[in-house]
Write a structure and sequence with these properties.
By secondary structure, the protein is mainly α. The protein is 52% helix and 12% strand. The protein has one domain: Winged helix-like DNA-binding domain superfamily/Winged helix DNA-binding domain (Arc Repressor Mutant, subunit A), CATH 1.10.10. A 3-stranded antiparallel beta sheet has the order 1-2-3, with no helix packed on it. A 3-stranded antiparallel beta sheet has the order 4-6-5.
Amino acid sequence: MALLLFRALGPLEVLDQGQPLPIGTPRTRTVLAILLARRGSLVSVDQLVDELWPEQPPSDPRTLVHGYVSRLRRALRSSRSGDEVAERLVTRKPGYLLSIGENEWDVTEFERSIADARAARAAGQPDRCLKLFGEAQEQWTGEPFADVPPTATITATIAALTELRLAAL
């Protein structure tokens, strides 16, 4: 069973054994969304600054980014899994990455269901194909990252997910 479940196919949520885990401020939630969207890739502090403040950054944006990541790490640490989960929010020059398992993010579950449905279709298994496409659609509870302010990364991720969903209909 997953330590936490990160949900982005609707409002952004982190579920700790089925219960919502408070993540904090809108900017902290945006940092989480960007890290999730980048799927375990290193996201530089400079990129986070550009995403959070595309027009006019505040006077010390790097310090603010470090603070948001610290709050996010603290929120993850408050889960029942504590340090084990918080340690997967890794600080590595020049930024951060979030390492989560495949079964810990609804987006990965959705993509896996779509891939399995396509494989079932190719194998001539229409009933299984329909079942899997249905399971993929059930992952969605609304617009991806519905309650997160748009950034370049989030907007691109929403577009890719929406395209994949529409192609599966």
